[in-house]
Write a structure and sequence with these properties.
500 residues; alpha/beta; three-stranded antiparallel sheet; 38% helix; 12% strand
């Protein structure tokens, strides 16, 4: 059929088919087959890789960079010292020249490829003609050697023992698929959390050395603890029957304990709340309590030692040496109520004591009077400080004596420090009726003696020995009468006098 006889429609169809065929052929040649690259090396450059052996690497194998294909193996040739591989790489991808080349297997059956791993990102890029030396290249182990080593390892395992291991493993983990799945899932979660908290993990590892050193230093204590634990477990094994009998009865005992706690519920919280304060005090005074517990057995031993010398005598008892010391040391009256406020012993009532603290308030280093008194209480929270109260111990206030303690006449509380007697706690308001304080002396005017205070007196009849007491009642003291014997013996002094 002649082309001129074809109608216009067929001519258009033939022209369209020709154009489509040419485009498809171009796409096949330039896009898929990449004939210009294969035939002429267009947009490519060649780099030489030196290896000690080929390791199954073949021509047209892939070359990757950061997991992306960047070229192919153009040629593999033998040399006098190993293998030389020509890598054809794409020119549009900049690959740092400071890198390592590794040959890997993409699957278990082979399909080797070359992976380019850069060491930094600042080195100049590779260019045509560069050589990657053998010192920066690695190949996978020989599969034949691996198979031979695996075969020798399997042959070294006793078949009967291997069968026993497999059977016991099946017995151990058979049917535990869900549990093993949870373990694997939990391990994965733990690994992810560890990755997210990498910095704390690294800090823990870096700081673990002191802990490990402490474990090494206390190895004897750990061994002793392990030995004691072994003794406890041995006792539990020995008394296994008793333990078995305890377990059924433990529920009833727990019910009784719960009932006891419920009955004590109204008062137990109050007791525990009070014990909190006691515990705080005990914790603060722990060194003093410990010292007391250490000294107490020695004191008891000393008391027992005083009885040894009287062991074989008729009249047993503790030997004491009584020395008559009159007013040695002198009585400490500083810091207490003045004598004019002392109540007579005839009164049987007991009025409320004034607010504040009453104690011997002389200098702390006074050598004789009340050296172990309240003014010298040690402050355990502040070593080296002594104070009569806990508040003064905890504060910055220091103990200030009323006087030097040598006021043997007049007012024993004579002082110009302005302190109250009794001593009020820091920050407390003064009492409604405080004791009159002696005003400070005027400049250049010496202070005079304290004013005289009247004292109560009672007259008696010498003829009968009768007298009227401060309470208004009449009393009789027969040994005061004129008819009483003048010369008294020690026997009559031991007999109580007759009186009303």
């Amino acid at each position: 059929m002649h082309f001129s006889r074809l109608n216009r429609r067929i001519k258009i169809q033939l022209a369209a088919f020709t154009v489509i065929s040419v485009i498809a052929a171009a796409i096949m040649i330039f896009g898929y087959i990449k004939a210009p690259v294969l035939l002429f090396g267009v947009d490519r450059y060649t780099v030489t890789l030196q290896l000690n052996r080929a390791a199954g690497l073949y021509q047209n194998a892939n070359v990757t960079y950061r997991g992306t294909e960047v070229g192919v193996v153009k040629d593999v040739q033998l040399t006098d010292t190993g293998v030389q591989v020509a890598l054809s790489l794409k020119s549009g991808i900049k690959i740092p020249s400071n890198l390592d080349a590794q040959v890997h297997s993409q699957s278990a059956i082979g399909e080797q490829y070359v992976a380019l791993l850069p060491r930094d990102h600042t080195s100049p890029p590779l260019k045509s003609g560069d050589v990657i030396p053998e010192s920066r290249a690695s190949v996978p182990p020989d599969i034949n050697r691996l198979l031979d080593a695996a075969d020798r390892g399997l042959q070294a395992i006793p078949q009967n023992n291997l069968k026993t291991v497999i059977d016991e493993s099946n017995t151990a983990v058979g049917g535990l698929g869900p549990e093993l799945s949870r373990i694997v899932k939990g391990s994965t979660t733990l690994a992810k959390d560890a990755r997210q908290n990498l910095d704390p993990w690294m800090a823990l590892i870096d700081q673990a050395q002191p802990v490990l050193d402490s474990q090494t230093d206390t190895s004897d204590a750990i061994q002793a603890w392990a030995a004691h634990l072994a003794v406890i477990t041995g006792q539990l094994q020995t008394h296994d029957s008793d333990l078995r009998s305890f377990l059924p009865n433990g529920a009833a005992a727990a019910d009784e304990a719960r009932g006891l706690v419920e009955r004590l519920q109204p008062t137990l919280p109050v007791l525990l709340a009070n014990l909190v304060s006691v515990g705080q005090v005990a914790l603060t005074y722990q060194p003093a309590i410990e010292q007391l517990l250490v000294i107490l057995p020695q004191g008891v031993a000393a008391m027992q030692g005083s009885l040894v010398m009287n062991h074989d005598v008729p009249h047993r008892g503790i030997l004491f040496d009584f020395n008559l010391n009159l007013n040695l040391p002198t009585l400490c009256a500083t810091g207490f109520l003045p004598p004019q406020q002392a109540r007579t012993m005839n009164f049987e009532d007991y009025p409320n004591r004034p607010p504040g603290d009453l104690y011997c308030r002389i200098p702390q280093d006074a050598p004789f009077n009340a050296v172990r008194g309240a003014r010298n209480y040690p402050c355990l929270t502040r070593p080296g400080k002594r104070a009569p109260t806990v508040k003064m111990c905890e504060s910055d206030e220091n103990y200030v004596p009323l006087n030097d303690g040598n006021n043997w006449k007049g007012d024993p509380n004579a002082t110009y420090t302005g302190q109250d007697v009794p001593q009020l706690p820091p920050g407390a308001p003064p009492p409604a009726q405080s004791l009159p304080q002696e005003p400070p002396p005027a400049q250049g005017v010496p202070s005079g003696p304290p004013p005289l205070v009247p004292i109560g007196t009672a007259s008696y009849d010498p003829a009968t020995g009768k007298y009227v007491g401060p309470d208004g009642h009449t009393y009789t003291q027969s040994d005061l009468a004129q008819t009483a014997p003048k010369d008294k013996t020690w026997q009559t002094m031991l007999i109580p006098p007759t009186g009303n």
